[in-house]
Amino acid sequence: MSATAAPGRAGTVLADLLPASTAGRARIRDAALVAGGAALTGLAAQLSVPVPGSPVPVTGQTFAALLVGTALGARRGVASLGLYAAAGAAGLPWFAGGASGWSMPSFGYILGMLLASGVVGYLARRGGDRTVLRTAFVMLAGSAVIYAVGVPYLAWSAHLSAHQALTLGLRPYLLGDALKAALAMAALPTAWHLTRP
């Protein structure tokens, strides 16, 4: 996709609007976006509030992951969240609360964010982030993917029943996810509106 695509053109995500005059510069731009998205997710993960009784804190990382996927598109979004997950699993302390590694019970949510970034990026490339209602659907779909991976992983890794995993790994987070979705519903369509000539 050309970086000079007209704002609002079908098949365009917000990151495509950043200029890159040559293929080499486009690759540099894309690499910077991927690294920047991973760093943003790592920073947002440090906004972490423990949930009593649950090994999964409330963080800003899910919002960042969905925003990265939506703004960058599926390919760059998956690459960005893949970099985030791989670096954290390898020991970089930028998961929630400065954690790292892959053996923690909340690692399934990180894998879910990786998949969700692809889903929301795919939907954004089809105009899913252009209006408030479409953005609401995109955020709901992305959150559903995160939980579809994170909750079963939590149950498996912490030896919980399905009911316990839902109680500890889903219910306490629904209100926060609604607030994060509301932020995205305001931010993404506004960004598209501001790019119109």
UniProtKB/TrEMBL annotation:
Annotated compartments: Cell membrane
Protein origin, superkingdom: Bacteria
Q: What's the protein's topology in the membrane?
A: Multi-pass membrane protein
GO CC annotations, alphabetized: plasma membrane
InterPro entries named among the record's database cross-references: BioY
Q: Which Gene3D superfamilies match?
A: 1.10.1760.20
Question: What are the GO MF terms of this UniProt record?
Answer: biotin transmembrane transporter activity
Alphabetically sorted, this entry's keywords are: Cell membrane, Membrane, Transmembrane, Transmembrane helix, Transport
Q: Where do the TM regions start and end?
A: 81-100, 106-124, 136-158, 178-195
Name of a matching Pfam family: BioY
The family line of this record is:
Belongs to the BioY family.
Q: What is this protein called?
A: Biotin transporter
Task: Report the source organism.
Answer: Actinacidiphila bryophytorum
Give the lineage: Bacteria, Bacillati, Actinomycetota, Actinomycetes, Kitasatosporales
